[in-house]
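Hey,
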Amino acid sequence: MPSLTATVPRQLVHRAAVAETFLTGWRRTGADRFTVSAQWPRAHGLHVSPDWVAYDPLLVVETIRQSGTLVAHAEYEVPLERQFVLNEFRVSTVPGTLALGPLPAEPEVELLFTDVQYRGGHPAAARYTAHVLRGATRVATADVAFACVSGPVYRRLRGGRTPETVTAVPVPPGVPADTVDRALPTDVVLAPTDRPGRWQLRVNTAHPVFFDHPLDHVPGMLLLESARQAVLLETSGKRVPTAYHAVFHRYGELDEPIWIETRGGPGTDVQVVGVQGESAVFVCLVGTAGP
């Protein structure tokens, strides 16, 4: 009999589309240790290069995010109606390990949960480390911190904002798609401004990946994609992102412009800051390598 593979229930990774669910299973391997299996598609609008040669590091980020969410629900019994709040995401990928092959890649993610904090009998916050492997090859390492809040707490945090009551700002024209290594203009998330190193975030709530389901705020993966594209523009494509260390300070609101700015970083790193009003939504130090 051939081996059969199916994705995990999409609700366990906070996805509406089965096509955007990359995980295929999980098992406990020790105290607070788990191994999650995944499958990466050979073609994807965002997470595979336009020439179908390599997976994008942000696919690794999304796989790790889904893995932590899955384990939180399935192993730590976080109720499905809880809202997850991403606080910090640090990931480093190994250049040369994300090439496409003749079959979809089937990596495994080794997770270790630490600092699990409980409130009312359920986890309220946790950290986890992740190691992503393709066979015996390590693809990436990561450290993630998140919180879980109940529906009533989340509604208080959001001050009554819901996907139905918030209208996103109009989407301005974007930079040329090829300057940010995108095949489609609809996947461009930055619009030019009159200041060097500064762009407006294009928030298209109809985008089927970033807004896989209705949201009342700008999702973290859209912010990370903005950091990716900003680095490509800042370096004129001479450096490509391989690592991200993002700290999320507040929700990015849909109905106010968000400005993405690049600032100097150590060595070949580039610091990207998302600003809304007078405060930072997120700060991300992006590590780069030659193309």
